[in-house]
Specification:
There is one protein chain. This protein has helices spanning 2-33, 35-41, 48-64, 66-80, 82-100, 106-109, 112-140, 148-176, 179-184, 189-205, 212-219, 227-233, 235-269, 275-289, 291-303, 305-331, 403-424, 427-433, 440-456, 459-472, 478-481, 484-500, and strands at residues 344-352, 355-365, 371-380, 395-400. With 511 residues, it is of the alpha+beta class. The protein has 2 domains: 2-333 and 403-500, Growth Hormone, Chain: A (Up-down Bundle), CATH 1.20.1250.20; 340-399. It has a 4-stranded antiparallel beta sheet, with no helix packed on it. The two termini are 37 Å apart. It comes from Sphingobacterium kyonggiense. Its main location: membrane. Keywords: Cell membrane, Membrane, Transmembrane, Transmembrane helix, Transport. InterPro entries: MFS_dom, MFS_sugar_transport-like, MFS_trans_sf, Sugar_transporter_CS.
Length: 511
């Protein structure tokens, strides 16, 4: 009977912790999911490529400050408790997300638009830096002995499920609104909705109790008086912090962001897959892949954390290039046979202030069911003569996949999600177990958020830059250039983890 009560209690902990963490990840990922749209709202429109790269850099900035959030909130969590700390991070994250939805566009307030966005992204990063360590530690300290991998893996699902929810909200918003409405103001809706979800999570979290391990340590007077010094000033603990980072967290970070963010950016900006279709494909892969976080978390309780995580990294190193090569071929029109009889072209004009916008559209159909739409735009004066000067958007290509190609792309994304579940499912339990209770929040948060915030968070911007540079240099395999970053980081992490991580890496109280 006691076991049943215990399991019921842990499920309450999981539910309350996961809901709040899911919402924080939703808030964080809304920005990334809408990066293509945001680049046209908060940055100058005269250079779309530079605007998109600036948006990715702003997105990355939120990741870069996550280690600082880990230090600040981790210290609070070890000093005053887990519950209070991640209540504060929840409110900070929700408030910043809500305010992003209210910022005027670049055309309205100029340079202040990207500046305010950057500041709010930094606040989001600080909040997330404190949230994850608190939630993972809180759940682990409630978990029964020998089952930490299983129970903490439920927290791991929240990051992926938060991205999934963000995609669903965006797609539903687009479904309800017209394309023009979404472009003008509808993109703000997912940001503004977050405040309602945060409020619900706050009501649930405020009734939670502090973790039993922390309460016991506090009652016995064994909490830390200086978590930062004891975590990083002590050579023994610092060694574990560094090993956790370079032997596990940095490889996990790049695998995570390659499978979920670089793949989405790749579909939209390299494969030219329609935004809605790309979001749907990623959403389906996430839906089918998410349960495997729990599968591999539970497996790590039986066989150990080390090789479950390292196998995920090794598979990524060996197969990323073939996977992305296969993805690119699915949409590349140069490799397809066109149904010439199905080609159609039309030209339309519409009044835009004092000018006319001329849009020449070409629709092409291929034998495998792929359709391609090309839009060539130019602004004309009223007398029909072309305006001398820079044209805002010259050309836009959109690809729609169907049938076997559509299923194949879902499968290729799903494989990458499986790699994510291998590396991410066990890592919370792994990090919790190698640090003492008194400095656990601080010690585990820093390597996790450097691995994910720095190495992982920079991946979309760095990989996109590498691919863009290779394309400018006329490299025929430019679309694979961005993969060198996650491949090299994962390979280095695999070697360090394989050589130096061992089963004796367990928490020791050095007080």
């Amino acid at each position: 009977m006691q076991e049943q009560v215990s399991k019921k209690g842990i499920w309450k902990v999981i539910g309350a912790s996961s809901l709040g963490t899911l919402i924080e990840w939703y808030d964080f990922f809304i920005f990334g999911s809408l990066s293509v749209v945001i680049s046209t709202k908060f940055f100058p429109a005269d250079n779309p490529t530079a605007a998109f790269l600036s948006t990715l850099a702003t997105f990355a900035a939120g990741f870069v400050v996550r280690p600082f959030g880990a230090l600040f909130f981790g210290r609070l969590g070890d000093l005053i408790g887990r519950k209070y700390t991640f209540m504060v991070t929840l409110m900070l994250m929700g408030g910043a997300t809500f305010l992003i939805g209210l910022i005027p566009s670049y055309e309205q307030i100029g340079f202040f638009a990207p500046l305010i966005v950057l500041i709010l992204r930094l606040l989001q990063g600080l909040a997330l830096g404190g949230e994850y360590g608190g939630a993972a530690t809180y759940v682990a300290e409630h978990a029964p002995h020998g089952e930490r991998g299983y129970w903490t893996s439920w927290i791991q699902t929240t990051a992926t499920f938060g991205l999934f929810i963000s995609l669903v909200v965006i797609l539903l918003t687009k479904l309800v609104l017209t394309e023009t409405q979404f472009d003008q103001w509808g993109w703000r809706v997912p940001f503004l909705l977050s405040i309602l979800m945060v409020y619900v999570s706050y009501l649930i979290r405020k009734n939670m109790d502090e973790s039993p391990e922390f309460k016991k340590a506090k009652a016995e007077g064994k909490t830390s008086t200086n978590p930062l010094k004891e975590s990083f000033g002590n050579k023994y603990n610092l060694k574990f912090v560094l090993l956790a980072l370079f032997g596990a967290a940095m490889g996990q970070g790049v695998v995570w962001y390659t499978g979920q963010f670089y793949s989405m950016s790749f579909m939209k900006t390299v494969m030219m897959v329609h935004s809605d279709q790309a979001d749907t494909i990623l959403g389906i892969a996430l839906l089918f892949g998410t349960p495997f976080f729990v599968v591999f978390g539970k497996l790590s309780d039986k066989v150990g954390r080390k090789w479950v995580m390292l196998i995920g990294m090794l598979l990524a190193v060996l197969t990323y290039r073939p996977i992305y090569q296969a993805m690119y071929k699915l949409s590349n029109p140069d490799l397809k046979e066109e149904v010439i009889a199905s080609r159609s072209e039309e030209t339309k004009q519409q009044q835009i202030d004092d000018d006319l916008l001329e849009v020449h559209t070409i629709n092409r159909v291929f034998t495998d069911g792929t359709t391609l739409k090309e839009e060539h735009r130019r602004y004309l004066e009223k007398d029909g003569q072309a305006v001398i000067g820079e044209v805002k958007m010259l050309e836009k290509t959109t690809v729609h996949l169907s049938g076997g190609n559509y299923v194949a792309l879902i499968a290729l994304i799903f494989i990458q999600i499986i790699y994510i579940t291998l590396v991410y499912g066990p890592i919370a339990a792994f990090l919790v177990e190698i640090f003492p209770v008194k400095i656990r929040y601080t010690s585990m948060s820093l390597p996790y958020h450097i691995g994910n915030g720095i190495f992982g968070g920079l991946l979309p911007a760095v990989s996109t830059y590498l691919a863009t540079t290779a394309k400018t240099a006329a490299d025929p395999n430019f679309y694979l250039a961005g993969l060198w970053y996650p491949i090299i980081i994962s390979a280095v992490c695999f070697v360090i983890g394989a050589l130096y991580i061992n089963k004796n890496m367990v928490a020791k109280d050095l007080s």
